[in-house]
Amino acid sequence: MLSISAAAATWFAPFVLPICLYVCFTDMREMRITNQANLALLLVYAVVGVFVLPLDAYLWRYAHFGVALVAGIALNAGGVMGAGDAKFIAAAAPFIHVGDLRFLMALGAAVTLAAFLAHRIAKMTPLRRLAPDWKSWSSGKRFPMGVALGGTLAIYLVLGILYGK
């Protein structure tokens, strides 16, 4: 059982899942996660979260945003991740219940591995012809992490609906 409430995940999912799909798409196509997507994600939390979470939990999760943003800026400065990835992680952080952090790390690792393998396989097969102009196909060793990040948040919320408190 996950710590996120099934009710909160149910309310967040219809708004968050399209943003996650958009992030996956734009990162594959352009190798960037747009600021608009990150702001939309944060706006969903600000508007929906106040109605579906207890006020203390709602406010406390803004600290998750701050911690994730500072860590992401540091990792971006060190060349470990892109700025869009860091901002997406920060915008997604308030949706995560702190009790699910260990599970989320394992889920993120599994989704990242699956996304990386799927991307590399698609890159070397005729599937590439479906979208021949996507920058992620010719980005060398770089990988569009938005696919893994968006996928992780989307799967977490769906699992929260199914297995949340």
From TrEMBL:
Start and end residues of each Prepilin type IV endopeptidase peptidase domain:
16-114
Tell me the superkingdom of the source: Bacteria
Keyword Hydrolase included in the entry's annotation: no
Q: Name one GO molecular function term.
A: aspartic-type endopeptidase activity
Q: Does the keyword Membrane apply?
A: yes
The family database entries (Gene3D superfamilies) matched by this protein are listed as: 1.20.120.1220
- Mark the transmembrane ranges: 6-25, 37-55, 61-83, 103-122, 142-163
Looking up InterPro entries in the UniProt record yields: Prepilin_IV_endopep_pep
Give Gene Ontology CC terms: membrane
Assigned keywords, A-Z = Membrane, Transmembrane, Transmembrane helix
| Name the UniProt record assigns to this protein | Prepilin type IV endopeptidase peptidase domain-containing protein
The organism of origin for this protein:
Salipiger bermudensis (strain DSM 26914 / JCM 13377 / KCTC 12554 / HTCC2601)
Q: What is the lineage of its organism?
A: Bacteria, Pseudomonadati, Pseudomonadota, Alphaproteobacteria, Rhodobacterales
